[in-house]
Design a protein that fits this description.
PAS-like_dom_sf, 5 strands, 6 helices, about 15% strand, single chain, two-stranded antiparallel ribbon, Biofilm_reg_signaling, PAS domain-containing protein, PAS
């Protein structure tokens, strides 16, 4: 938590851990002092004055913000900033490194699976179990059925593509 002049009002242990802050930085310290420590520890490489000016501007405009930063050590931090009544500022910092890594792995796996499914010589058709509508058709299934995906996906087995549903 910061006051309207970017002085630290309160800080929790999670924030302290994320930025490896010493006990000497606590309530009453300035955000500038935190940023200077982050530069010394290699966790910040931007221009302190510009960074502070941007935060002070958001505080003055009472503009809530959410953004993500990459620390120099490879970690990814989500930051959510919100104005407080009385002119202060709450900033929540969350280490999302593992989450982002998991998302990237999932995306790579999905792309690999899509490539494999799309290029196998067997027809693959996926159907929603509840609505019985076709959800996916690969190239081989298009050839096998003799219809395009656009004619198949979203329809049920009872609905001929030549006869549009009512």
């Amino acid at each position: 938590m910061l006051d309207g002049r970017a002085n630290v009002v309160a800080m929790n242990n999670n924030y302290r851990r994320i930025y490896n802050l010493p006990e000497t930085i606590r309530a009453g310290s300035t955000l500038e002092k935190i940023l200077q420590h982050r530069i010394k520890s290699g966790l910040f490489s931007d221009d302190i004055a510009k960074h502070l000016a941007a935060i002070l501007d958001r505080i003055a405009r009472r503009e809530p913000t959410a953004y993500e930063i990459a620390l120099n050590d490879g970690r990814t931090i989500n930051i959510y900033e919100r104005p407080m009544d009385g002119g202060g500022w709450v900033s929540v910092h969350e280490d999302v490194t593992d989450l982002r890594h998991g998302q990237r792995m999932l995306e790579r796996t999905e792309r690999l699976l899509a490539t494999i499914v799309e290029n196998v010589h067997e027809g693959i058709i996926a159907k929603d179990a509840r609505s019985l509508r076709y959800l996916f058709v690969n190239k081989a299934a298009e050839k096998m059925i003799g219809m395009s995906r656009a004619e198949i996906v979203g329809r049920t087995a009872n609905c001929s593509p030549r006869r549009r549903p009512t």
